[in-house]
Recover the amino acids of this structure.
């Protein structure tokens, strides 16, 4: 360690780069174990590397004290970086400006009852586009490179490709990938946009699910603009997201229509909090409800069905019988619509099969009329209750007496 005069680093002795631990050694320190357990390896390692790089540069500049590279100091510094990385950018403020409905401070403040209702509706499925009383709720197969080239005229502003995330084209199909489209578009001075629909931000195949293309992959392929949803595979609020090159996004930002399409504080706050979850991928399948339900073990679903079968059977007898059945669930009507998930649940079948249609309609209506409406599906003369999305069996069990009364 050198004691030559150098820049003032306070009361401590100046540290050299060799005084800093390697990333592997730092992550093996017992003091870091709690941070790894709380946040997962990905985020902690990322912030630890950034911290060591910053400290190493300060050491090279002669501005680092030996006191700052001790185990406790490094742990505290890393914890501070993690807290900063996970801190939401939106926060409450005291509005002392004198303007009650302040455009830049979130405009109107919601009433307590509105906030409570909002929380309840965002924390569970709801009847957004579903009538509880009634229960009701053209393209080409092949596209080639020359189709895009022939379609370009002097009036063409951009090329666009839409990913089939919420529908499927079957039969003899062919499409042009984004790398080829980028070559065609950029050779003619045109931007390339692609719509991914569902908005997967992680490789779903790591969780045993069908893989969807990622926005970052499309950027790497040469796309200038990528759009996707916030409320599907991303698992956040209903919103349309636009990402891409700085130049393209800035052009969109400056366009006058952008003001009419901007997000309000409600979805923006929910989106920010959702995106924060992706900083800790090791916890994502636990913390993100959409991914947690998609990856829920089949054994757990089957066990819940076995546990509920007798109580449900008692509630619907003597008109219906209830049995545990294997089911094929769906990832989403607006996301990967043809992909199926192995699931389990209960099948409610009329004992009088001659009147099956009318009886099932009546049963479905009774379920929808419960204090917390229950939505199943009718197939093959049975009403099916798929339990993949039911994490608390008590929510159904407590309503069974009301169902029994409705069917008497």
């Amino acid at each position: 360690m050198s004691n030559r005069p150098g820049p003032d680093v306070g009361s401590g002795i100046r540290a050299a780069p060799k005084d800093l631990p390697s990333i592997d050694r730092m992550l093996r320190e017992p003091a870091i174990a709690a941070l790894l357990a709380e946040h997962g390896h990905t985020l902690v390692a990322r912030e630890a590397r950034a911290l060591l790089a910053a400290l190493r540069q300060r050491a090279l500049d002669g501005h680092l004290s030996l006191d700052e590279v001790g185990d406790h100091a490094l742990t505290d510094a890393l914890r501070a970086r993690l807290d900063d990385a996970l801190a939401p950018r939106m926060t409450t403020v005291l509005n002392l400006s004198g303007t009650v409905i302040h455009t830049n401070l979130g405009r109107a403040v919601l009433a307590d009852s509105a906030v409570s209702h909002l929380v309840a509706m965002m924390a569970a499925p709801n009847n957004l586009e579903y009538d509880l009383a009634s229960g009701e709720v053209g393209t080409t197969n092949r596209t080639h490179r020359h189709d895009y080239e022939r379609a370009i005229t002097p009036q063409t502003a951009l090329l666009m490709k839409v990913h089939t995330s919420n529908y499927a084209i079957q039969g003899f199909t062919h499409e042009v990938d984004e790398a080829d489209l980028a070559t065609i578009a950029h050779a003619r001075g045109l931007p390339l946009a692609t719509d991914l629909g569902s908005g997967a931000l992680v490789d779903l195949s790591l969780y045993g699910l069908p893989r969807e293309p990622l926005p970052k992959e499309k950027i790497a392929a040469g796309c200038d603009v990528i759009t996707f949803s916030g409320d599907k595979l991303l698992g956040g609020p209903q919103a349309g997201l636009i990402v891409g090159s700085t130049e393209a996004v800035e052009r969109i930002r400056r366009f006058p229509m952008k003001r009419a399409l901007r997000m309000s504080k409600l979805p923006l706050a929910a989106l920010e909090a959702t995106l924060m979850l992706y900083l800790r991928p090791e916890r994502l399948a636990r913390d993100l409800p959409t991914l947690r339900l998609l990856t829920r073990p089949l054994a757990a679903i089957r066990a819940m069905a076995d546990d509920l079968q007798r109580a449900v059977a008692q509630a619907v007898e003597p008109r219906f019988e209830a049995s545990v059945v294997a089911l094929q669930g769906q990832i989403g009507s607006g996301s990967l619509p043809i992909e199926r998930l192995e699931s389990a649940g209960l099948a409610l079948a009329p004992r009088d099969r001659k009147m099956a249609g009318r009886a099932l309609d009546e049963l479905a209506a009774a379920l929808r009329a419960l204090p917390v409406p229950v939505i199943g599906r009718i197939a093959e003369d049975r009403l099916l209750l798929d339990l993949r999305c039911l994490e608390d069996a008590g929510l159904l069990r407590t309503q069974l007496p009301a169902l029994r009364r409705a069917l008497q």
